[in-house]
User: Fold this.
Amino acid sequence: MERVTIQEASRRLNLSQADIRESIRNGELKAIREPSPTGRRWMVEMPEEGWENGFKSSLRDLAQSMTPWWWSNAQNTGFVHYVQDLGIEEIEPLYLCGLKGDNVWDATDHTPEQRCPECVAIARERDLPHA
Ligand SMILES: [Zn+2]
Assistant:
């Protein structure tokens, strides 16, 4: 079993170091504390190829199985927007109309009238699914 530093694990697994630490805390990644010249440090056991932390894979499942239409705020006010990209390291949704948010909120039950007109226009123009 290969053990690497959190920094190296972060690089190889394409997750932030905070995500690596979180995955260690919740048991998704195994790690042990090893003595190092500067004290003790966490050494992460590299998981098998194809491993994804639960949060990331649930996001990916969501992205694949659900509508790309999301609320841009927790109050579910205004329009639902078409999410073009959820971001890789952190959730940084980029909505089709150019709006940027810091999170997405489930909009499964929205009506067509609640869709952002700009997002609708662009999605149709690009022939995107669920437009
Ligand atoms: Zn929009």
